[in-house]
Design brief:
- The protein folds into two domains: about 20-100, no CATH class; about 125-170, no CATH class.
- Helices cover about 50% and strands about 0% of the residues.
- The chain is flat and about 75 Å long.
- It has helices at about 5-10, 20-30, 35-40, 50-55, 60-65, 90-100, 125-130, 140-150, 155-170.
- The protein contains nine helices and no strands.
- By secondary structure, it is mainly alpha-helical.
- It is found in: Nucleus, Nucleolus.
- Its main location: nucleus.
- It holds the Pfam family Nop16.
Length: about 170
């Protein structure tokens, strides 16, 4: 059986390649990507992870951030040295994260309204055969999606039905 061609050929040196740039790009690609945009923009690659997080006012170790009370007999005065608090130099990161966390959550249990064409009424088989059924849901899947939506969002469901009634009256 023949051998793979690339495995048997000797490695040739690439003299026209800038090895310093290749290594730098390899290190940059191998570095972990920070998904949070607020932290990524404030990150300083010259400092350590602990220092970066301390400057942003974030905790690197949750056990040290919120220490548990240890049941000790009274500590000696020499042992009660507290280390100095790190200075928060980038408080805008913490403020941005708080505002992003305080935004309302998106609703996830909404069926696709293009699928629910109420010209069919409660006929789920007709909805399943409809050309607007892009996800090719079965009649039972459509029924279950509508029932879940009715349970979780009754006010929105009534608004939807009222808008359908208004549209029917305008058409007639």
């Amino acid at each position: 059986m023949p051998k793979a061609k690339g495995k048997t050929q000797r490695q040739k040196s690439g003299y026209n390649v800038n090895r310093k740039r290749v290594n730098r790009n390899a290190q940059r690609k191998a570095a972990t990507q920070i998904k949070c945009s607020h932290i990524r923009h404030a990150w300083d690659h010259a400092t350590s992870v602990r220092q970066n997080l301390a400057e942003m006012g974030l905790a690197g170790d949750p056990n040290k951030a919120v220490p548990l009370r240890k049941r000790k007999v009274k500590a000696m005065e020499v042992d009660t040295e507290e280390r100095p608090k790190e200075l928060v130099r980038k408080p805008y990161v913490l403020n941005d994260l708080e505002t992003e966390a305080s935004l309302p959550e998106k609703k996830g249990n909404t069926p696709s309204w293009d699928l629910i064409d109420y010209n069919h009424g409660e006929d789920y088989k007709a909805m399943a055969r409809d050309e607007n059924n892009y996800y090719q849901d079965t009649p039972k899947q459509i029924r279950n999606k509508i029932n879940v939506y009715k349970c979780f969002y009754p006010a929105e469901w009534q608004d939807f039905l009222n808008s359908l009634r208004k549209n029917k009256m305008e058409v007639e």
